[in-house]
Recover the amino acids of this structure.
């Protein structure tokens, strides 16, 4: 399964067009958008629609620039085939489980770390037996190169969940200064995917 993952588009129509072109060129099977789709919800148009035309599954979570309700609205507006993964999970091919939680600890729309932990534990419980596990979050884990700004500004709960469940892959965004960088915690690879997006190949075992 080939994935295009991106974050922090901030309603940049040119960035969306480039991502759509990349998805077409790479013939991706799935599109994952890790929050901050808008810029303070100033405009909700032209974000999901261009991706929808690719006729691929699209999974989104909110960032700190849109409410959880807005992510749900966008998913329902472009349904079927668009899923809001905030506090939820999805199982693909009976073996690839994706779970997630949006929101940020700074910015317009914030979420507390206790709530992040609760939602990630809840969503992971539904795909805990999946052979491959991907976690979608907006914030990076605390204490890594991905959350280093004026200090470490990431989520301690996200770090703790990674250590506890050791998903194969964690996709995040939020910190613009570390777009495209990656790190590991145990066996888990974590990538700040950013608005240019990355292509990921997930090998199915069956």
């Amino acid at each position: 399964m080939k994935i295009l993952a991106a974050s922090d588009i901030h309603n940049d129509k040119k960035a969306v067009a480039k991502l759509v072109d990349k998805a077409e060129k790479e013939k991706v099977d799935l599109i994952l958008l890790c929050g901050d789709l808008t810029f303070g919800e100033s405009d909700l148009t032209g974000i999901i629609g261009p991706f929808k035309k690719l006729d691929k599954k699209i999974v989104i979570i909110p960032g700190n620039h849109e409410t959880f309700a807005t992510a749900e609205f966008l998913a329902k507006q472009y349904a079927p085939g668009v899923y809001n993964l905030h506090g939820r999970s999805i199982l693909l091919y009976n073996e690839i489980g994706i779970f997630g939680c949006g929101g940020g600890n700074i910015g317009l729309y914030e979420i507390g770390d206790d709530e992040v932990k609760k939602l990630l534990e809840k969503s992971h419980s539904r795909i805990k037996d999946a052979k491959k596990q991907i976690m979608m979050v907006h914030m990076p884990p605390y204490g890594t190169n991905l959350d280093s700004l004026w200090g470490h500004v990431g989520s301690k709960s996200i770090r703790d969940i990674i250590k506890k469940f050791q998903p194969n892959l964690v996709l995040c965004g939020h910190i613009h200064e570390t777009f495209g960088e990656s790190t590991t915690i145990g066996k888990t690879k974590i990538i700040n995917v950013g608005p240019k997006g990355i292509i990921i190949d997930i090998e199915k075992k069956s």
